[in-house]
Every structure is written in structure tokens, then in C-alpha cells.
């Protein structure tokens, strides 16, 4: 996994839903599991 420095992510570029998705992806370790946990489709999360 490639690290993206925080300076590339501005607060105005990310809403709370996107932040929840990122946190869940990291927690679950995969896009598919994160999407299932959040009850959304996989293409929506990626």
C-alpha cells in the first residue's frame, strides 16, 4: 500500500462519508469487506 502524505488531502476535498469509507477499508483490509460492512456496493467505495 502506498502512503499518501496528509498534505495532499485538504479538508474541503473529503466529506464524512468518504472518511468513513477510508477508515473501514483500513479496518477491514479490503474494499469488498468494507463495502459490505457499510452496506454499499463495491464500486461506490472505490
What form results from the Cα inertia axes?
globular
Strand content: under 5%
**Percentage of residues assigned to helices:** 40-55%
Low-pLDDT stretches are none
Strands, total number = 0
Give the SSE string. HHH
Largest sheet: none
Summarize model confidence as the mean pLDDT: 82
Compute the separation of the termini in Å: 15 Å
Radius of gyration over C-alpha positions, nearest whole angstrom: 11 Å
Would you kindly provide a written description of the structure presented here, covering whatever features stand out?
The chain is an all-alpha fold and 46 residues long. It is 54% helix and 0% strand. The protein is built from 3 helices and no strands. The chain is globular. The two termini are 15 Å apart.
Amino acid at each position: 500500500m502506498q502512503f499518501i502524505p496528509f498534505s495532499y488531502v485538504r479538508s474541503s476535498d473529503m466529506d464524512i462519508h468518504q472518511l468513513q469509507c477510508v477508515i473501514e477499508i483500513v479496518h477491514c483490509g479490503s474494499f469488498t469487506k468494507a463495502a459490505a460492512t457499510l452496506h454499499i456496493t463495491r464500486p461506490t467505495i472505490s
